[in-house]
């Protein structure tokens, strides 16, 4: 190979790497812009605005605690109201992301059809918008941790829990958003699956109190590992390494699948939305 | 001159599948149909050049715009596009009704490729051009559709694009703003921006474009001087419609009507008419049953604007004499084309003198284009100005 050919090849490689960098940066920038937009729209017309991000799950946790402690007299889990709250909040982030990202490409149809941009920003910013609401509600988790009296260095697990949840959400979000334009049934499938997920995830109950087989089966649900990491952070429980490993494994599979499906389908979006 | 947009053998094929649900697609019923929306297009668009695309609905114009603006990828061929493109396809795409004008400008500007700093620098210009300073902090759901358009257009033209992709944007918004949009597009062209634009408004095509391309069923069939291309477009329209709608004839069956010729004073039929020309439409009527006289009515409408003029003869006074079945006669209808440049459609109706019965109806008797310099408005009132008295000095106006 001549020196000139080597140089031109190197230049080509550099330009394509540069182009890829530009594309990634634009994707991240636009995700940021649209996430903030989605977040702003969310509570725009509500008098209490962003407080609903806190009030909604807090109210839910209150009702659930009352039902389980006073009506059903279930006393298996210590600090049950805090336990429920620390499950409900991340779960709201998950469900909110799923429902909004599924329809995101279709909802942004006018942009998909008219403006050239990386289309993956639509599911990502749907997650981003929900994520900002979750961040706004985060102080509630910290307060919950303080009230449990078990808070300490364990709180360092909180960022890990958030990162793990984002990883889980992004894969599903991208996958669902790429299927919805062609298969509109997906939306109802997602709603049903989320209802099931509420029970297939240790939100209201403690996995360790279940039968061993069932407890193991729940590890296939990536949100199980996410929930347990939140509980480790807020309630100072032991970190379950195996649960986290299971979550990461499932996440990587879903992310890989999402990437393949999204790439195969995105060209047809402008004609389907 | 540098080529901004270069297409070689550009083609786009769509696979048409019947609307399906998840379950149906598992069943895999029906073979998808293939449709070439665009085929074998070669196009070079240079900096500072305006290229218009004309053609009927479904001819592939929107597909070409989608390809040019990069929202869809070509099936065949290559396409080189500039990095910065302002789509004036549906201005304000992505505007959210709950957000204020200001917030929408910030978001939309970013989507169209401006940086945050750039938006901050140009924000005042954007607002000034849109003339919405008073409403910029209102949610845009409170805007009228004209205000919405103005803001969207203003953001798009401030993105410093290399190429403007325009689709019928000039058909909406109020008149003064339309004129300013056109001026702005011209100014951008003069500063070296390329413009690719699609319009049914043939007046605007003739006025703005340096070159035009005619698309028919996805294939480019003519390219070059806009006057010639628009002329070809009209010829193809006329050939296809046969100049009158046979479906309309079935309901009104007293005569067989045929447009024999349409001529200007010169005796020829121009491919492109000029404002104020006189047109003579020669009609041949053959009675298919006995008819006790008829009167004539005309309607002239303009594409994109609607009815321009309607006229009919006084009821009672039969201008077409009584005819028995098989008889025929030729009528000449004259009209002054006191209209501004654009595409027009002449509709002719023949009715009973009491106006109760339709004898014959040609919904599309004649399609034609009027060329010349396009301005807003539909009617050419042939204005004149003269001074009637000399200016007097030393007197203040009373």
Describe this structure in words.
The complex is a heterodimer of chains A (273) and B (398). Chain A is mostly helical and 273 residues long. In chain A, 77% of the residues lie in helices and 0% in strands. The mean pLDDT of chain A is 87. Chain B is α/β, with parallel strands linked by helices and 398 residues long. Helices cover 25% and strands 33% of the residues of chain B. Chain B is built from 9 helices and 16 strands. In chain B, the strands form 4 sheets. A 6-stranded mixed sheet of chain B has the order 5-6-7-3-8-9, sandwiched between helices. A 4-stranded antiparallel sheet of chain B has the order 13-12-15-16. In chain B, a hairpin with a 2-residue loop joins strand 8 and strand 9. In chain B, helix 3 crosses helix 5. The longest helix of chain B is centred in the middle third of the chain and has 16 residues. Chain B is globular and about 80 Å long. Chain B starts with a strand and ends in a 28-residue tail after the last strand. In chain B, 38% of the residues are buried.
């Amino acid at each position: 190979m001549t020196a000139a050919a080597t140089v031109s090849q190197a230049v080509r490689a550099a330009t394509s790497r540069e182009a890829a960098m530009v594309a990634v940066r634009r994707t991240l920038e636009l995700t940021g812009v649209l996430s903030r937009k989605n977040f702003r729209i969310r509570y725009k017309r509500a008098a209490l605005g962003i407080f609903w991000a806190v009030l909604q799950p807090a109210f839910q946790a209150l009702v659930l605690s009352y039902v389980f402690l006073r009506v059903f007299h279930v006393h298996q889990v210590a600090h049950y109201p805090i336990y429920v709250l620390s499950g409900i909040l991340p779960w709201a982030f998950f469900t909110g992301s799923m429902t909004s990202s599924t329809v995101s490409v279709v909802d942004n149809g006018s942009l998909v059809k008219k403006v050239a941009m990386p289309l993956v920003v639509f599911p990502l910013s749907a997650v981003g918008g929900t994520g900002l609401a979750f961040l706004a509600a985060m102080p509630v988790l910290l307060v919950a941790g303080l009230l449990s009296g078990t808070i300490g260095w364990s709180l360092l697990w909180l960022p890990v829990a958030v990162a793990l949840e984002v990883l889980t959400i992004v894969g599903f979000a991208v996958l669902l958003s790429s299927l919805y334009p062609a298969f509109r049934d997906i939306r109802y499938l997602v709603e049903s699956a989320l209802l099931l997920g509420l029970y297939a995830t240790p939100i209201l109950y403690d996995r360790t109190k279940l039968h061993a087989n069932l407890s193991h089966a729940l590890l296939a649900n990536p949100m199980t590992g996410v929930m347990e990491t939140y509980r480790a952070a807020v309630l100072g429980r032991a970190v379950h390494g195996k649960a986290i490993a299971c979550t990461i494994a499932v996440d990587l599979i879903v992310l890989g699948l999402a990437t393949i499906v999204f790439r195969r389908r995105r060209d047809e979006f402008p004609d389907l939305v | 001159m540098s080529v901004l947009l270069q297409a070689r053998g550009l083609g786009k094929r769509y696979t048409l599948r019947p609307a399906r649900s998840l379950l149906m697609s598992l069943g895999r019923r029906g073979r998808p149909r293939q449709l070439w929306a665009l085929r074998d297009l070669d196009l070079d668009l240079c900096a500072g050049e305006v290229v218009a695309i004309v053609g009927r609905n479904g001819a592939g114009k929107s597909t070409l715009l989608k390809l040019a603006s990069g929202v869809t990828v070509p099936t065949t061929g290559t396409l080189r596009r500039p990095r910065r493109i302002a789509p004036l396809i549906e201005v304000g795409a992505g505007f959210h009704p709950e957000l204020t004008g200001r917030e929408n400008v910030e978001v939309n500007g970013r989507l169209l490729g401006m940086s945050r700093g750039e938006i901050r620098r140009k924000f005042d210009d954007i607002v000034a051009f849109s003339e919405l300073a008073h409403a910029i902090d209102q949610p845009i759901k409170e805007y009228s559709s004209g205000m919405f358009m103005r803001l969207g257009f203003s953001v798009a033209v401030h993105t410093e694009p290399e190429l403007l992709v325009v689709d019928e944007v000039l058909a909406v918004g109020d008149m003064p703003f339309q004129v300013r949009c056109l001026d702005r597009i011209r100014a951008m062209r003069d500063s070296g921006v390329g413009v690719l634009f699609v319009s049914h408004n043939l007046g605007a095509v003739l006025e703005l474009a340096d070159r035009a391309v005619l698309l028919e069923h996805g294939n480019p069939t003519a390219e070059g001087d806009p006057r010639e291309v628009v002329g070809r477009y009209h010829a193809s329209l006329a050939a296809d419609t046969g100049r009158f709608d046979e479906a309309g004839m079935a309901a009104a069956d007293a005569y067989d009507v045929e447009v024999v010729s349409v001529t200007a004073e010169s005796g020829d039929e121009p491919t492109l008419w000029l404002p104020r020309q006189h047109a003579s439409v020669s009609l041949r009527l053959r009675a298919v049953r006995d008819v006790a006289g008829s009167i004539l009515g005309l309607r002239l409408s303009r594409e994109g604007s609607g009815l321009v003029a309607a006229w009919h003869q006084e009821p009672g006074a039969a201008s077409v004499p009584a005819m028995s079945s098989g008889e025929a006669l030729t009528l000449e209808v004259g009209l002054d084309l006191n209209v501004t440049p654009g595409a027009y459609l002449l509709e002719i109706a023949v009715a009973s003198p009491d106006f109760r019965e339709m004898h014959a109806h040609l919904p599309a008797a004649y399609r034609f284009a009027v060329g010349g310099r396009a301005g807003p408005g539909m009617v050419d009132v042939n204005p004149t100005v003269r001074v009637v008295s000399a200016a007097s000095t030393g007197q203040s106006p009373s």
